[in-house]
Amino acid sequence: MAPSGIAATPEKKLGFEFEPSPWGDFFIEYEPKPLQRSEEWMMTRADKLKKDVHMMFNTSNNTEGMFLLDTIQHLGIDHLFEEQIHNTLSKILENKLTSSASLHEEALRFRLLREHGYWVSPGNGEDGTFKKDITSQPSGLLSLYNAAHLLIHGEPALEEAISFARHHLELVSSSLKSPLAQQVKRALHRALPRSCKRVETLHYISEYGEEEGHNPVLLELAKLDFNLLQHVHLKELKAITEWWKNIYDHIVLSYIRDRVVESYTWAYVIYYERWFELPRIIIAKMMLLITILDDTYDTHGTIEECRKLYEAVQRWDESAVSLLPEYLKKFYIELLRTFKNIEGEMPVDINYDIAHLKKAVQNNVTGYLQEAEWSHKNYKPRFIDQVNLTSLTVGAPTVCVSMMAGMSDTIMKQALKWTADVPDVVVAAGKIVRLMNDIAAFEVQSISTNDAYTASKHLQKTIEGLFIKPM
Question: Which of 60, 313, 447, 449 has the highest Cβ tally under 10 A?
């Protein structure tokens, strides 16, 4: 992702250097310690526990099923129970809660249904106000706070609910016990529906055992599933790090960011399930390739070099390499080769038209050139024009087209074309990422070196938790 919205200066950019990767060849050389049990034993044990959970779904009433579903989602094992979850949601939708239901139950029902695409109206009491007695229910306030973040435009009751719950959670946060205290702290930083699901799972698996009435079957299954998936992800991370190292060493562009681990992590938080290896790898590779293009336009190329690179990418043919300055020729050949390899390695049963992905990258470069032209002419665009352009150059359309490789073949062609046409939802996603990216970049630039180091170490610790340390 671009460190700023607009390319830097008209001619050769000032000597801007990105921080080196803290990972280097770590994941190429890393060999995880053997687990206490074999992978075969773990898979057999997980299958046994899944049958136990099936029984839990079959024997639970409406309220019990609601809490079971929420726990399974929070533990990151919902991908194992798609049919049971669908049936449970249907029951939740059909059966309204009784008048004696708690705030926690009401908010949980609302959140589960909305986050799975079922439309339900918010309810906040007969008189439109919040009852004061709910302020003594921190778990209910947390449930309300998280649920209310699934609001849409024109829902002032949910906006009020967020303010109300946040105010009272802040008042009681210092007196809460573990693990509720940590959960409230995280939610106040970023509400559950807006958090990174897999990172939240990382926290919750370690906390769930402290909860009163926790289910040991669910906890054991969550740990087994996490460790089994971690083994899969480590293999992929090793493979893509080797791929990146070969390209990085071959193209010899000293000014580009080395962010292979971070790019794979982005892909992982979008698709972490075992069967999404293909879109994970495509997303990570596309992020790395457009980062090279972005860094060339943003921190290194002259305006003439930027124009030539644009022309070559639009032609998308090896003969166009003659247009480029010497230092970009190897990269251009690698760009074309990577797309050929992705197309050649695509399973025959996946109807993914890579032409849409190629066009998304070409559109990215069109945006990069526009940014460079603005900079070259010292043109200051209107804020809305800059947001509209940079919400596309941040890479959202390319990532979204890459994601479509995970669609089932029955809807692949339709979904891919729809996404490639950059519908409003893709533009909106780009704007959110663009603004969050710029806010984060501003904050990093404005904080002390020690704070920046702490933020960097926090990211490294998260990556270690996701890929290195077993549960």
Answer: 313
Question: Rounded to a whole number, what is the largest CA-CA distance in the chain?
Answer: 75
Q: Are 349 and 409 in contact (CB under 8 A)?
A: yes
Cis omega (within 30 of 0) for bond into 397: no
Selection from 37, 28, 88, 34 nearest residue 62 by Cα: 88
**Alpha-carbon gap, residue 297 to 307, rounded angstroms:** 10
User: Residue 256 CB: number of other CB atoms within 10 A?
Assistant: 19
Give the phi and the psi of residue 112 in degrees, each rounded to 5.
-60, -45
Report d(CA 415, CA 425) in Å as an integer.
13
Tell me the residue length of the chain: 471
Confidence of residue 306 (pLDDT cuts 50, 70, 90): very high
SS (H, E, C) the chain: CCCCCCCCCCCCCCCCCCCCCCCCCHHHHCCCCCCCCCHHHHHHHHHHHHHHHHHHHHHCCHHHHHHHHHHHHHCCCHHHCHHHHHHHHHHHHHCCCCCCCCHHHHHHHHHHHHHCCCCCCCCCCCCCCCCHHHHHCHHHHHHHHHHHCCCCCCCHHHHHHHHHHHHHHHHHHHHCCCCHHHHHHHHHHCCHHHCCHHHHHHHHHHHHCCCCCCCHHHHHHHHHHHHHHHHHHHHHHHHHHHHHHHHHHHHCCCCCCCCHHHHHHHHHHHCCCHHHHHHHHHHHHHHHHHHHHHHHHHHHCCHHHHHHHHHHHHHCCHHHHHHCCHHHHHHHHHHHHHHHHHHHHCCCCCCCCHHHHHHHHHHHHHHHHHHHHHHHCCCCCCHHHHHHHHHHHCCHHHHHHHHHHHCCCCCHHHHHHHHHCCCHHHHHHHHHHHHHHHHHHHHHHHCCHHHHHHHHHHHHHHHHHHHCCCC
> Quick one: pLDDT at residue 5?
45
Type of residue at 177: K
Distance CA 366, CA 179 (A): 49
Tokens of 263: 């790019």
Q: Tell me the per-residue pLDDT of 439-470, one tens digit each, with 9 for 90 and over.
A: 877 776 666 555 554 557 778 888 999 999 88
Higher pLDDT, 46 or 458: 46
pTM across the whole model:
0.88
pLDDT in tens, 340-398: 999 998 888 788 889 999 999 999 999 999 999 999 999 999 999 999 999 999 999 99
Measure the CA–CA gap between 120 and 155, rounded to whole angstroms.
12
Nearest-angstrom CA–CA distance, 297 and 318: 21
Q: What is the pLDDT of residue 35?
A: 79
